[in-house]
Amino acid sequence: xxxxxxxxxxxxxxxxxxxxxxxxxxxxxxxxxxxxxxxxxxxxxxxxxxxxxxxxxxxxxxxxxxxxxxxxxxxxxxxxxxxxxxxxxxxxxxxxxxxxxxxxxxxxxxxxxxxxxxxxxxxxxxxxxxxxxxxxxxxxxxxxxxxxxxxxxxxxxxxxxxxxxxxxxxxxxxxxxxxxxxxxxxxxxxxxxxxxxxxxxxxxxxxxxxxxxxxxxxxxxxxxxxxxxxxxxxxxxxxxxxxxxxxxxxxxxxxxxxxxxxxxxxxxxxxxxxxxxxxxxxxxxxxxxxxxxxxxxxxxxxxxxxxxx
Length: 309
Description:
It is a single chain. Helix 8 packs antiparallel against helix 9. The protein has ten helices and 14 strands. By secondary structure, the chain is α/β, with parallel strands linked by helices. The chain has two domains: 2-213, P-loop containing nucleotide triphosphate hydrolases (Rossmann fold, 3-Layer(aba) Sandwich); 224-291, 2-Layer Sandwich (Alpha-Beta Plaits). The protein has helices at residues 42-49, 90-100, 105-118, 134-146, 164-179, 191-197, 215-221, 235-242, 272-282, 295-308, and strands at 2-13, 16-27, 31-35, 57-62, 65-66, 75-78, 152-156, 183-187, 200-205, 208-214, 226-232, 246-252, 260-266, 284-290. The longest helix is centred in the middle third of the chain and has 16 residues, at 164-179. The strands form three sheets. The protein has a six-stranded mixed sheet with strand order 6-7-8-3-9-10, sandwiched between helices. It has a four-stranded antiparallel sheet with strand order 2-1-4-5, covered by helices on one side. A four-stranded antiparallel sheet has the order 12-13-11-14, covered by helices on one side.
């Protein structure tokens, strides 16, 4: 079942077309990546989903019905532009936002203290927000966003400014939220994070949806007949031997045993069996695997192809 459906949505501001006939469906209980270059239209789409602004045409369905203001209570939104009242105490402010989302003070304090302990920031409960580092402030806002356990969560660049340890902490929490039944829209430029946590993605460029689908299926679709050979021997001899059936050679990092790795593109009119036979004549071949495209490569290639069309 799809928790959210965007159907043929368009939105213009003055002479700028922010969204052009965009459609996508977000399955319930998954992490959905919303990708695109700066200015592509992602933020406008997020604002429409949050009922902050309305589309000029098209519609958004939430759990099968037209999205209304009442549905926003079931959506948690962490914007890229963070906003906390700097002079308020951290705990006091967190309780204030929790009360706005319908929790009693008693429930809010209990749940917030549990989350603050998990994020190792309980000692900052009575400090003023202005004393927090950027990372700590982001942790507080993340907690406020998820506290009321909304059905749909929207995170816009949630790892911005985080060190790798705290970024991993948030990734783990996002996966746990998904496992507990929440659906997550994850807007980011960090393609490695997409590979780690997203089930499906939509790539928007110049106001249009240019690519949608399952992350693993898209990576296989874009792998482009590329393979990686693991071997012992002379790499130059291997490349020369493979040149009749392939090209675009690129050396990879050695494996744990110190064996070399070569990535290459197999010609469309050649077979993998031919490549293996030629490789065996030049080196001691240890293995061969498909070179699945990275999301970063796919992002760049899809955008370039779209702009060239």
